[in-house]
Design brief:
This protein is mostly helical. About 65% of the residues lie in helices and about 5% in strands.
Amino acid sequence: MPKKRILPYIILGIINDRPGVTGREITTEFNTEIGDFWKASHSQIYPELSRMNADGWVAASTSKDNAKEKYYSLTDEGKRVLEEWLDQLVDTLPIHEDMFSLKMYFINDRKDKRVKELIDQQTALLQKQLAYLKQRQQLVFPNPSSIDAHFGHYLILSRGISRTEGQLDWLATIKKDIQ
């Protein structure tokens, strides 16, 4: 069964939050906030914007200063499609390409030196990720009004912090267990 395309809905959400956003600015979102939990490259984004424009979900305009740069806004149809998607309940768990878990799964001996190496490496990666997420939280949500303005984003960032802290706690417990 083909995987359902999610990228158009993400792009609709970005444009809804930032009417008049450019393709370059949409791409940048995947390098910052959204990129913390969903990846897409410009080679995926621009063709999707063209399809969405052809489908009547977005309108593209240019400025007299730069005729090459397109500025995107939602059409009424695009708003309807986004609202319809947001109304759908999530009924599946996310599937991740988690190389750490995959490699650990195939190591059968508790004393295999790769267990400790993988745990140490994963711990370092997660500590770096946790520092980044906490820095983003302080920068993007410095006060209660900024939380209220983008509450869903705040919740997802908080979930990322909590999940990362939980993984670090689990790794510390496992490391003690194998020593």
